[in-house]
Structures are given as C-alpha cells and as structure tokens.
Amino acid sequence: MNEHPSLISNAKAPTELLLLDESSFEQWMSSASEAQIKLAKKQAFAGKSGQIAWIQTQDDICALVGWDKQKDLNSLGHLPFKLPEGQYSTNETLTELQLLGWVMGAYSFNRYKSPKRLPSQLEVTDENLRDRVLVIAESVALTRDLINTPASDMSPSHIESEIRALAESNEASFNCWTGDQLLDQRCGAIHAVGRASVDKPRLIELTWGNKNHPKVCVVGKGVTFDSGGLDIKPAAGMRSMKKDMGGAAIAIGLASLIMDRNLPIHLRLLIPAAENSISGNAFRPGDILATRKGLTVEIDNTDAEGRLLLCDALALAVEGQPELILDFATLTGAARSAVGTEISAMFTHSDLIAESLYRHGKSSADPVWRLPLHDPYNKMLDSSVADLVNSSSSGYAGAITAALFLNNFVDSSIDWVHFDLMAYNLNTRPGKPEGGEAMAMRATFGYLEEKYGKS
Ligand code: BES
Ligand code: ZN
Ligand code: ZN
Q1: How far apart are CA 214 and CA 10, in angstroms?
Q2: Nearest ligand, measured from the Cα of 223
Q3: Active site amino acids
Q4: Which residues are within 5 Å of ligand 3 (an ion), measured at CB?
C-alpha cells in the first residue's frame, strides 16, 4: 500500500470539511453566526461545486466545500491538491465512487520529478470501504505509472519485469517467449512488429487462480513505442506514442485488481510487447506474415501494428478455451474520432455483455460505448496475395475494420470484448489527472464482479 495513503483510518485533529450544496448552504446559514456567514460570503461561497471557503468555529477552523452531490469522481476529485496539505474529515457519508475520486485525484507521477506537495488526506472510518477504494485506486495508479513512464524505461523487457513481479507477489505462474522463440512458437506477427528494436519483442503470460473456476483471458496491446515503423508517423502523431502500451497497462492493472480482490476466476493475462521501430531488418509494407492461427497477413501499413500483436495473442487466448476474452488496445486514431478521448470504444458480438458493460461504465464514471462489428466491411480487409491485409486502404470505419481484423482470430463460441481506447487524459479533470489513464478498467472490473461474484 502507498506510503502516503490519501484515505486514512484515524486522523489526528482533522480539519472538518462541511460539504454543502446550494440548499444545504442556505440551511447552514440559518444556524451559523453572523461572523461565519460574513466570512463565507467574503469568499464568494455559494455551495457551488469547486468553491471552498474557510470559516472559524469555536476552537478551530473549518472549510466549507461546495459540491453538487453527484455520486461520481467529480465530487471530491479536485480536493486532494486544492486543499492545503493536511488531514480532513467530512460531515457526509461518502460513496465508493466519491472516495475513489479523492484517491484518483491524489495521484501524481513522481518518478522523475519530486512532487511540490503531498495530497491531502481524508479520514474514512469504514475499514472495508476504505480498503476497497484503496485497492482499486492502487491498480489505477499502477496502470497510470506504466503508461506515464517513457519508452526508454518501459521497453518490452521492462514490461516483462513488471509482470514477473506481479506474478511473484500473487503466487501466479509466469512464462515469456522472447525474440526468436516467438518464431518457434509460430507467433510471426508479434516477432515481425518488434524485431527491429534492440529490446526484443515478447509474449508475456501470467496465470492465476483456481483451475476449476471459470476461465477468463485478458489481453493488452503492449507497443512500448509506436514510431509507425517504415510507414513512419509525423512528429505530432509520434509525440504521444509512449502510451501505445496503454492497453497492456490496463490489462495488467485489471489483473492486479482481480488478484487483489480474489475474484473466483481462473485468470490468464497475455501481453504481447514490442517496440514498433525502424532498422534494416524492420518489417515492410507488402511483406506477408505467418500468424499463430495459420492465417497469412499482407502488410498494407506498418503503422497498423497493434492488431498484429493482438492477432497472435488472441489466437493463443482461444487455444486455452476460456469462456471470456477481453482485450484492451490503443488501436486506432479512428476510434478517437468516433467517440473522442474520454470514452472507450467497445466491440462485442454479445448484446448482453455490451449492455452490462455499458451499465457498469456509467455507474463507475468509466464510460464505454459500443461500435458495430459490421460484417460487410470485412471486404475492406481482402488481400489478393494473402488471407487478409492488416489495414484497409479506405479512409472510413478505421476502428471497425481494425476490430473486424481481430475478429478473424477469435472463435465465435467464446465471448469476446475488444476495447479501443485512448488510455490518456489530455488535461486534468477532477479525479483524472493529465497523463496515463486506466480507461475501461473499472467498468470491466464491475462487470466481472457482478458476473462471477465477489469473493
Ligand atoms: N497506436 C496507433 C493508434 C493511435 C493513435 C491510438 C493515436 C491513440 C492515439 C496505431 O498503431 C496506429 O498507428 N493506427 C493507425 C492505423 C492505420 C495505419 C490503419 C491509425 O489509426 O492511423
Ligand atoms: Zn501504429
Ligand atoms: Zn500503435
């Protein structure tokens, strides 16, 4: 657990936060002293979200905090760095999501720069609730740290070390195929994407839980840097590509959460990790790759590399015959055009799962929106020399054709959900600081908890 948890069990002389909306502020005024009302008004306090005013009580000071009573991350998410450093308690009973807003808002990425200040701490006496919120926030922080770490310190071998450590601390089993071992294992697509990098491509696997529990496989795109390959990206597009392992980071965060909360499932985490780099031995447009599934893929564009990593990993996932496969990937710019940067695009054949994930996304302030696996668009992936191309030359429906590409590698008898997401906050919002973000992770965890039961 964090050395400086932002939720604490018993604070020493905490400063009280009086959470007031516009109407409870009116009520408060009816019992407050004239001096207190004057102070609140001088600070332009009206009970609106974002407002803070300091008042004097009998023997202490107290902060009036405006809020809109929304039961989501926004209610308290701005406070850990807006209130002065210190320990606080509140007058309200707070929900899991409100507390999560506080802890997620208390995150900062400190690996290369010491923080200017510590986040404020909030007293939460309900032990179960506090532990649960801290465990969820810990997984979010793990995912964010992995994404925020630049490619120089988050290469495929670093991802391997992270997963190895996670396996060791959870008594899970671990396996990794590296470099040419991928060719021995017929993972020609993962190998091709990553072979031009000095840090070798790999397929990393963690397995955990009771074999008799339902099998769930979680897969994440682990492109540690996406230069675009020989179809090199322009500078502006390449600038943010340290986050192209965001899907892997989310899959790792989700796995850690599943293990921490001891969900009764048999979990398999599969992370294909590679740097899409440029060198004399880089894969080229026009090359034809042999994949694990046996399908051949003609390379139309070396920048459509994520689906190549995922196709081998998904084929492997299917071989294990799980009842559910979930994959997470920063797969296409087109998904960002469709749903923007704050919503995860979701693809699945199952209406039931889509509906449930949508509901969990909504209730956990982690929104997901379904896009269709529109079968007729499969023709955009036809190749004259191989079973399919890796990217369609049409400028339309890029997120859908990417998902349809993946669909070729899963089995229709297995439930499958694919998330195409941003994994990054472009700016700071309450509970969502700028930088890496665990998008779709809490929505998915909520779904898994409901389906498989809490431990
Ligand atoms: N990693 C990118 C997609 C991406 C870009 C995600 C920006 C989030 C933000 C992916 O590998 C890529 O380059 N996709 C191409 C596919 C195209 C070549 C078919 C894209 O979306 O332009
Ligand atoms: Zn790319
Ligand atoms: Zn990519």
Answers
A1: 39
A2: 3
A3: 233, 307
A4: 223, 226, 244, 306
Backbone φ and ψ for 121, nearest 5 degrees, come out as: -110, 140
What pTM did the predictor assign?
0.98
The pair phi, psi for residue 440, each rounded to 5°, is 70, -5
Distance CA 332, CA 425 (A): 16
Q: What is the DSSP letter of 50?
A: T
**C-alpha neighbours within 13 Å on the C-beta side of residue 197:** 28
Pocket of ligand 1 (CB under 6 A): 226, 244, 301, 303-306, 330, 332-334, 336, 391, 398, 422
Q: At residue 331, what is the residue type? A: L
C-alpha distances out from residue 166 to 1, 173, 260, Å: 14, 10, 11
Which amino acid type is present at position 52?
A: I
CA angle 148, 209, 444 (to 5 degrees): 50
How close is the Cα of 335 to the center of ligand 1, in Å? 9
As beta bridge partners, residue 215 has 266
Q: Quick one: which H or E segment has residue 409? A: none
Note the pLDDT tens digit of each residue in 380-433. 999 999 999 999 989 899 999 999 999 999 999 999 999 999 999 999 999 999
